[in-house]
Amino acid sequence: VASRAGSPGGPRGGIDLGGTKIQAVVVTAAHRVVGEARQPTPTHGGPEEVTAALAEAISAAARAAGTDTRQLAGIGVGSPGGVDGAAGTVSNARNLPGWDGTFPLAERLAKRTGAPVRLANDVQATILAEVRLGAGRGRDSLLGVSWGTGVGGSLVLEGRLWRGRGMAGEIGHMVVVRDGALCTCGRHGCVEAYAGRAAMELAARRRADRGEKTALFRLMKEQRRPRLTSGVWARALGEGDDMARELMDAAVAALAAGIASAINLLDLGTVIIAGGLGVRMGQECADRIAGEMRSHLFLPQRAPEVLVAELGDLGGAIGASLLVETPDGIVRRRTPAAARG
Ligand SMILES: [Zn+2]
After folding, report:
1. 123, 127, 255, 315 - which has most CB atoms within 10 Å?
2. Interval between CA 114 and ligand 1 midpoint (Å)
3. CB neighbour list of residue 316: distance below 8 Å, 6 or more residues apart
4. How far is the CA of 173 from the centre of ligand 1 (A)?
């Protein structure tokens, strides 16, 4: 929904709207970050308050880049919840305050900033950046998996972001154990019920409450964290903590089963692991997931490559900025030069 003209050819804005923080960037036509700003996501109010915070963040990033939002070619936003890119709306973003219905985010943010606004799901934005500029360069079809608090996913098929009817790519809710563990979505046996950071923490608490020994919660206190962050998991694994290892093994097994099932369906050659846990656990863990996938693959001798996202903290915002020039998420088709990279 391009309700404002913006400045075609000008720098682009990108915003990663997360449950705890808003990350904004301003990038050049060559995707170089020339301004950035970050602020906490409002915990009270509703979509209008969140929209005001988005406008503040992108305005600060534009100021840092020596410009203002009216000079931007447009602003892309990667948002949680149900995103309708064509309608410019976000529905039921449950980890944002008071966001239960459908809100016309593109139109409202365009009004506040004077630049046209494009939307995608936050995981789609992150993976779009990896395909264009990161670990997926040169590939035109792949599966992206965001392994963090929950487990999200995004599909790029023949150079195009595959949105389905808006919710495509929810690999976290592929069923890997029928009637298995209770998932945060209310169903049973999903990948996320074993591999989501939130689910892993719940399982660890239940076992600790039963008197099982673990270093996880001691490390959490030492690092002054309110929850078992990816850093806490990494430390506990480094100390050889048995419970951390068992829960991580279960997470890897669930991810491997879910991703392999998706590969059996789609026959993709590349999987990119992103997200807080995915990036923290790194390529060694991605290799373990690849190894465990083999027993589930219909053609293990044609296993896909499993790579870790490269773009780090700004990846989601940079990916969102790409929506301005490619609103349908169209990735440049493979060229001989890109195929070599
Ligand atoms: Zn689920």
Report:
1. 127
2. 39
3. 16, 18, 23, 78, 122, 125, 126, 129
4. 4
